[in-house]
Fold this sequence. Notes:
The structure is a homodimer. By secondary structure, the first copy, chain A, is of the alpha+beta class. Helices cover 28% and strands 18% of the residues of chain A. Chain A has 4 helices and 5 strands. In chain A, helix 2 crosses helix 4. The longest helix of chain A has 22 residues, at 71-92. At the A-B interface, helix 2, strand 4 and helix 3 of A face helix 2, strand 4 and helix 3 of B.
Amino acid sequence: MYNHADETYKCPICVGIGTIKEGRSLIxxxxxxxxxxxxxxxxxxxxxxxxxxxxxxxxxxxxENIYDMSDxxxxxxxxxxxxxAIALKNAYKAQGVTIIQNNEPYGDQHAFHxxxxxxxxxxxxxxxxHIYDKPTASTDERAKAAASLKGxxxxxx
Amino acid sequence: MYNHADETYKCPICVGIGTIKEGRSLIxxxxxxxxxxxxxxxxxxxxxxxxxxxxxxxxxxxxENIYDMSDxxxxxxxxxxxxxAIALKNAYKAQGVTIIQNNEPYGDQHAFHxxxxxxxxxxxxxxxxHIYDKPTASTDERAKAAASLKGxxxxxx
Lengths: 157, 157
């Protein structure tokens, strides 16, 4: 419901996580931090100035927004977002974590596949002053960030 | 883990949702939109300028942040956030919904009990320019907003 992508939308997130085989995506295989049968977590292709290499958690099934989310998939999204938050604490030495999930164009949603941003926070980062800038992060640096987070998946400390 | 409240912290959210009986809270009974054995949703005591009467979803159990969230409670949080997003669409005629969940002081967390903001969005609302302003919303208006949302709980349209 309240979908904004039309029938011809080639979803760049579906392409990036491998559920659609042909099409364009900024997501590279090295960006993937975690994938199971329900959800995928990957390093964002876009950096926020002082909060680089944040994680995006998505359902594998193409759902445009939260309104259409099933409880089962939503539960897994939340659980993996938590794992990612802990990994950001450990791997990036983040001083906090902010989670943002946008729905619909007026809600700042630009890719029309549900996605939850899990953002490392640091003192004085002025997140909201730079949230719309989003320069592209380099493929190599994204892959390094993904590898560093993988090492902390499942850790509880 | 990574908790910032000390042993003497009188949690205003625990007081507001009724799990602690004595103490101070800005949350009033009329603010409550939904409560079950695991979670509570209520109208925020603070308005964001162009996004008034947003909803806050919390676990009833005192958990400071996402790092300590159980999968079961996290699942219910996500499910009720979705219900609230749909209710905001229906009751407020929101044009979008943004969900924000902050952890730790450097992550903009000020009340040390996990809470997820479910925020109605509108064209030109400039959410992030006003996100730190937060004037207090009137008790009567909050109660009206809560009542309007209750009427749409469980709706799927």
